[in-house]
Amino acid sequence: MEHPVMSTTSLFSLTFCAIFLLFLPISILKISLATTLSNETDKLALLEFKSHIDSPLSVLVSWNESFDFCQWVGVTCGNKHQGVIGLDFQNKKLVGIISPHIGNLSFLQSLNLARGEIPVSLSHCSNLQSLDLKYNQLVHEIPSELGFLSKLQILILESNHLSGRFPPSLGNLSSLQNLSFAYNNLEGEIPNTIAQMKSLTSFDVAINHLSSLFPPSLYNLSSLTYIALTMNNFSGHLKPDFGIALPNLQILWIGLNLFKGTIPVSLSNVSDIHSLDIGGDYFTGTIPMSFGSIPNSIGKLSSLNILNLGANKLIGEIPSSFGNMTQLLGLYMYNNSLEGSIPPSLERCSHLQDVCLCHNKLNGTIPEQLLGPQSLPLVLLNVSHNSLTGSLPPNVGNLKLLVALDISYNKFSKEILAQLGDCLALETLYMQGNYFKGTIPDLSKLKGIQYFDLSNNNLLGQIPRYTINFHEQNLNLSFNNLEGDVPVEGVFRNASAVEVKGSIGNFGNVYKGKLGLDEKNVAVKGNDFKPLVYEFMPNGSLEMWLHPEDGFKQLRSLNLLQRINIAIDVASALLYLHPHCQTPIIHYDLKPSNILLDDDLNAHISDFGLARLLSKSGKEVLLSQLSLAGVKGTVGYVALEYGMGSQLSTNGDVYSFGILLLEMLTRRRPIDKLFKDDLNLHNFVKLALPG
């Protein structure tokens, strides 16, 4: 809870105070003296706090005798007295030790030390109402002494490195309303003492290592509106009366755990639930038919915005009653064993944007009703890996907002409709692994396409010339019956399009092909028929993994060990290029898009189009190449000294490597929109890792 800075009255002169005190009743005199002593105690406590803090931004410069301490930066005093009720140092880059004297601030209600540490002495701040320490590097256990803060209403410790168990003593926080320990390393069970938190409305322990059954104590907290247990090791069944015990839920996120059994039918009675995510568990059986069964009534999930039942073991059909969940924005039921057809009643979900039904056993066709004149505002439609037949409905062109369409690996067998070219927002199109026939239609209006895959079909004719103009395309037309020349000047000039997969780079077109009798996969790059043949890298570039743009929410992810290995691979390559080559080589354009990954995620440095040789002395670029170099490279990665006329050197590559490491750590580009004014990638990392 944050408090605005409140105005304070000016101090009376000592003379006036002395005269005035003569006319005060004894009781008032005692209160005044107590207040004076309390104020002096608060002032001394703040000065002690300052003496242990080193602030690079000098935020504590105002903390001196020239100002009333209630006017010091970050300090808020109360109206009834001049005692400190709030301290706010969020994002102030404070460094040092928090003095135990902070426990002397007896009126303190709010403390915000985001990017600080948890002092045990906080337990003495008996009036503290809000404690928010998120986004720090806090370690060790949560102090059990926090259970003494009986007036605490908000306790947020998320996004740290806290470990150990959930302190049972926190059950004493009977006034607590919001608890968030998400993104830490807590383990063990949730203690039963949590049932004593009768005021609790929000409980978030997502992404930890907690275990046991669904916390039984939560069933006793009917006031809960938000429960997040995502990505832990909770297991077992949910109680059949789940929705009756927790009738006020608005958000329930319990996915990526080990829950099993059937989905409680009583969930459909939670009248105000907006988001239900049980994806990535082991739920079995059918989807309760009561979900959405009574339109516009109390309950039946009529307020639901997000429904994620994906990656479970559900069977049976998608209930037609889903069409009554008219507020639905996202429907995710991928990776189950659902059968039957896609219900046409979904057309009544007039706000629906994301539909992901891939990896099931659905049959029939895509209902025309979903794509009618008043079609759904679909952004993502993924029905891949099913047994759907026919073709796309003729009115597919009505999907003006569609960004990603994946209908691959079904049994579609008709021609690809030219109306698909009216989906002008389309960036990703996957239609491979079907039985589409005929020629590739005119889709030249799809100027923003980035992934275009029509492989493994029965397509005929020539490759349309417009396909070479797609921006940064990933084009795959392999394993069809196409013929004729590849419509790219100088690349595979008279080759049959048995397999072609390409992207447009800065220095020519790149295609995937087969080389030799063993049909080894290779990448071919060139202009004016001066091809370069490379080993094909099936895992693409590091750029694709750090910044995926496939529109499918199937996030590419590299764990810490993989990132370290990639960094070592790149460093080893630079070690070879710089001191171990007979003539040292400066790459001059080191960045994630030029780091390619093979089958085993081994990293390879690519694209030596700007590379330069050093003279034998190793100190300067060969003079014959200086005129070609200039200051090129890529903004954000190129060494700053090059812009001031410095000669090329291996130090420039080392600078680029450093930027690459920071980007791998944060997944932020050096030219990210976040970086404004004095904030850049370097000090962004320093904020997260002080010291």
UniProtKB/TrEMBL annotation:
Listed GO CC annotations: plasma membrane
Recorded catalytic activity of this chain's protein: L-threonyl-[protein] + ATP = O-phospho-L-threonyl-[protein] + ADP + H(+); L-seryl-[protein] + ATP = O-phospho-L-seryl-[protein] + ADP + H(+)
Lineage of the organism: Eukaryota, Viridiplantae, Streptophyta, Embryophyta, Tracheophyta
Protein name, as recorded: non-specific serine/threonine protein kinase
Keywords per UniProt: ATP-binding, Cell membrane, Glycoprotein, Kinase, Leucine-rich repeat, Membrane, Nucleotide-binding, Phosphoprotein, Receptor, Repeat, Serine/threonine-protein kinase, Signal, Transferase, Transmembrane, Transmembrane helix
One family name in Pfam for this protein: LRR_14
InterPro entries named in the record: Kinase-like_dom_sf (IPR011009), Leu-rich_rpt (IPR001611), LRR_dom_sf (IPR032675), LRR_N_plant-typ (IPR013210), LRR_R13L4/SHOC2-like (IPR055414), Plant_receptor-like_S/T_kinase (IPR051809), Prot_kinase_dom (IPR000719), Ser/Thr_kinase_AS (IPR008271)
Family that this chain belongs to: Belongs to the protein kinase superfamily. Ser/Thr protein kinase family.
Topology class, membrane: Single-pass membrane protein
EC number: 2.7.11.1
Residue ranges of every copy of the Protein kinase domain listed in the record: 401-691
GO molecular function: ATP binding; protein serine/threonine kinase activity
Top-level taxon: Eukaryota
Localisation per UniProt entry: Cell membrane
